[in-house]
Write a structure and sequence with these properties.
This protein has 2 domains: about 70 residues; about 260 residues, no CATH class. Helices cover about 55% and strands about 15% of the residues. The chain has 16 helices and 10 strands. It starts with a strand and ends with a helix.
């Protein structure tokens, strides 16, 4: 049968006569004869042509009408089709296994590697990363202007941190941010949002939150979360190619440092260690359970749950409240009335106040305004 043969040496196609003798496909051209074993053949049907190649001669290919190939192959055609299906299944299986391996590495391998990498991170590097993150966060969440309250918060942080086993200088400050949250950055900065200060009803509740965040710094959970998210970003960049970029991912992480989350083991560790730090300083550790209790009750409220970022980055409040209550011990109040009043007023000068903003966010202010307007409208 006639065919076109590309020998892999020249770009032209050579006229060829093809025959099948037993297990050998013989291809005769003016330049010579090639013999391919059937078991080495790969056949692809494209349009009306059959494109045949051999894994022993990968640069060459034979092209002939698919009808001619069908007649030449005869009862062996089903064998070629079965072989092709097997190759396709192997390819699908291989791709599926590769995808499963990537998912397993992202979900298990990267988090497992993040902890030892975090503990091996040089102190100087973590401090530098913290300074970079702090600059990024400061541009988004400005420092509250109440100096007396900031001083009291910083001093409270120092009193708790003195019992922490960390080389980092813990620096606690209040920031303006539209969320109930507190978060630590690499190298020691701890930020408490104005809405969290408004939500805390006692100094002991606020002290418990600060102690919890200091524990994250001490245990290097912050760096662990950074390396975990950074590693996943680099891996996805390698898989999908472009789009994110390792350097770009680092910038994104800096901007999202306040959203770094920890696994449940790290949260439990920070809870227990935070209570221990409070007790080491002679302070009450009873505020943690009370604060988590209040947050847990908010989880069923739709509008509040959306606004309460603390519930996303510090999950499972109800269970953690029970654990904290079982371990709590009485002690001195974290702040006196005068200092507590100063902390409560830290951010009030920056706006109409976090409580007013919370009311507006949950629609309370809008409903009051609507009611006032409706009272002014006379019936027709």
């Amino acid at each position: 049968m006639s065919a076109r043969f590309y020998d892999g040496q020249a770009s032209r196609a050579w006229p060829a006569e093809v025959s099948l003798a037993g297990e050998i496909l013989e291809i005769r051209t003016d330049t010579g004869t090639s013999r391919w074993r059937l078991r080495d053949l790969s056949v692809q049907l494209e349009g009306y042509d059959a494109r045949i190649s051999s894994r022993k001669d990968r640069d060459a290919r034979l092209v002939m009408p698919d009808d001619d190939w069908s007649r030449l192959a005869g009862d062996r055609l089903d064998d070629f089709r079965s072989a092709r299906r097997r190759r396709e299944l192997w390819l699908i299986g291989g791709l599926t296994a590769a995808a499963a391996g990537i998912v397993l590495f992202v979900t298990v391998g990267v988090p497992a590697l993040a902890k030892p990498i975090a503990r091996a991170t040089p102190i100087g590097l973590e401090r530098q990363m913290g300074e970079n993150f702090d600059a990024q966060i400061g541009a988004v969440f400005p420092r509250c202007r109440g100096q007396d309250g900031q001083r009291v918060l910083a001093e409270l942080g120092d009193r708790i941190a003195v019992h922490a086993d960390t080389p980092f200088d813990i620096r606690v400050r209040a920031v303006e941010a539209p969320m109930i949250n507190a978060f630590a950055l690499p190298g020691g900065p701890v930020m408490v949002t104005d809405d969290l200060i408004a939500a805390a009803e006692t100094p002991d509740e606020l002290a418990a939150v600060i102690a919890h965040e200091i524990s994250h710094v001490e245990q290097r959970h912050v760096m662990q979360a950074v390396w975990r998210d950074f590693g996943i970003g680099m891996l996805l960049d390698a898989v999908v190619g472009g789009g994110t970029g390792a350097g770009q991912q680092a910038v994104i992480l800096a901007g999202q440092a306040s959203s770094l989350s920890y696994d449940r083991a790290a949260e439990r560790e920070a809870d227990a260690r935070g209570q221990a730090l409070l007790e080491a300083g002679g302070l009450s550790s009873e505020g943690m359970a009370v604060f988590f209790d209040r947050l847990g009750k908010l989880e069923g409220s739709g509008a509040l749950t959306e606004a309460t970022e603390f519930l996303n980055t510090h999950p499972d409040s109800g269970r953690r409240a029970r654990l904290a209550r079982a371990a709590q011990k009485p002690g001195a109040a974290a702040l006196g009335p005068e200092d507590w009043a100063a902390v409560k007023g830290t951010c009030l000068a920056d706006s109409n106040g976090p409580i007013d903003r919370l009311q507006r966010r949950f629609g309370l202010g809008d409903r009051k305004a609507s009611a006032d307007q409706s009272d002014q409208v006379s019936p027709d």
